[in-house]
Amino acid sequence: MIIGVPREIVDQEYRVALTPQGAHELVHEGHKVLVERGAGEGSSISDHEYRAAGAAEVYGESELILKVKEPQESEYPYLRENQVLFAFLHLAANRELTEELLRRKVVGVAYETVQRDDGSLPLLAPMSEVAGRMAPQVGAHYLEKMNGGRGLLLGGATGVPPATVVILGAGIVGSHSAILATGMDAHVVVLDKSVIKLRYLEHILHGRITTLISNKMNVREAVRVADLVIGAVLVPGARCPILVGEETVRDMRPGSVVVDVSIDQGGCVMTSRPTTHSNPVYEVHGVLHYCVGNMPGAVPHTSTFALTNVTLPYVQMIASLGLAEAVRRDKSLARGVNTIEGRVTSRPVAEAHGLDYEPLEYILPLELPEAGYQGFLRSP
Fold first, then answer.
1. Is position 31 annotated as part of the catalytic site?
2. Of the four listed, 81, 127, 212, 277, which is most buried by Cβ atoms within 10 Å?
3. Which of 192, 227, 260, 264 is the catalytic position?
4. Judgement on whether residues 210 and 303 belong to the same structural domain of the protein
5. How many Å separate Cα 31 from the centre of its chain?
């Protein structure tokens, strides 16, 4: 199979979807890998470590496109029918891209909806770890007076109380945020609907955090007195629910900070809107909002290698078997298919945009026996 890796063009996105080591593995297995010139430079990976090519060649020749972030408008014309696009797509929060993939009949496979039977998200997990660890650092930065905040040190000082960090969600992002914020000696409050997740966090942090069941009253009361709010809510594949209304934001202290890591899926704070690394914050009701959708792009070397570690086995499976056989053998990958043949195969995406939903097994013959099975988009 011919596999293409374009250069990312989202504002200050320095990650690349495949490391040289990953490219070497694929070439060794008999595949052709094309990487756009300059794609790895932001991750401190030079062109000579890949087979460099132009953007038109990468998209034009490749049957499988590997990206980090979703395609931008200028990249739409490169996409073509039956091409497999494997990337973070977040379609539930992006109607324009959804419609473009459907119109062009692109096979959209989303990293963030590849899901195992136990509910875990293996391709989202490493980026969630990175974003979770970054969130308290970012919040601490913007709490400093010269950066527009209240002028607080997250950990306080002798005789001076620490800042209060409220984390909405105890999944991977929330857990890593809690671990980092606790390590910075902040007063940490974590809210989640799952008692099991909260109990786990209390256990590993030896009771150094406060946990609350997430409900409207608890969220409102916790956020109102917070110095830093970290939005870490995720519903796989779906638009993120709004947990913090504008009235609650209005009641927060002037100079407090919101870091909404959920922004890729629409954000969990009513006043959140996407920002970029070039212009990362804005103010609403005296509260600073940081809503950069590609936070891990700020640490691209770490992020690129962490991402390839988990995506490469799936890429190898698609490249070697073809998409249909790969999803037939691996249900977690099948859950990652959001669009195919101009149809939506992800229920949350369909519901988010009021589109028709068709289960993947209605389109691909996933239950056919292996004998005589030809697959779909099989490599030559």
1. no
2. 127
3. 264
4. no
5. 27
